[in-house]
Amino acid sequence: MAHQVLVAYATKHGATAEIAKKVGQVLREAGLPTDVLPAGDVSELPPYSAVVLGSAIYIGRWRKDAVRFLKANEQALAERDVWLFSSGPTGEGDPVEQVEGRLFPESLQPIIDHIRPQGITVFHGVLGAAEMNFIERWIIKNVKAPLGDFRDWSAITSWAAAIADALGKEEN
Fold first, then answer.
1. Over the chain (172 residues), what is each successive 10-residue block's mean pLDDT?
2. Cβ(52)–Cβ(8) below 8 Å
3. What is the secondary structure of the chain as a DSSP string?
């Protein structure tokens, strides 16, 4: 029986949701039944044998809905195949280097250790002044974060395809 996959996400301005939808599309194209839902809308995990969770990352923190999802479902996630991604850094270069190798907020380390994800990555994000409030614009100006859409769709697609391959190999 094919894996039923959940791609859950927490987003602020929608860029992480678009990454999650792309991951879901790649998994569906690989023949895996996949639902893509905001993390805050997921009420139960039993139908899913694999979970991909993504969160926008701001000032080193995940969105509250993603953290709540991890904490509420820690035991269930430890019994499933899980992949995690963060999105956020902008500009050129390796996004993992841009976050100084911190693939997720340090405060989540005990939960991550318990869940033992199959893979964890960081994708570039989007930073647009139009969606920001005054305080956010001031912070961005002071840290000199580049504005624009820096998402690498081929990296996102490749990562999702690797998940599909891993889940497909388990079927055989």
1. 88 92 97 96 91 89 93 95 88 65 79 94 77 67 69 94 89 52
2. yes
3. -PPPEEEEEE-SSSHHHHHHHHHHHHHHHTT--EEEEEGGG----TT-SEEEEEEEEETTEE-HHHHHHHHHTHHHHHTSEEEEEEE---SSS-HHHHTTT--S-GGGHHHHHHH--SEEEEE--EE-GGG--HHHHHHHHHHTPPPEE---HHHHHHHHHHHHHHHHHHH-
What is the token pair recorded at 38? 């905001």
Q: What is the pLDDT, as a whole number, of residue 83?
A: 97
Cβ neighbours for 138, distance < 8 A, ≥ 6 positions apart: none
Contact between 54 and 37 (Cβ < 8 Å): no
Cα–Cα separations (whole angstroms), residue 142 to 8, 139, 146: 32, 5, 11
Q: What is the pLDDT of residue 7?
A: 98
Amino acid at position 144, single letter: K
Q: How open is the CA angle 28-34-40, to the nearest 5 degrees?
A: 140
b vs e for 17-45, b when ≥16 Cβ sit within 10 Å of the residue's Cβ?
bbbbebbbebbbebebebebebbeebeeb
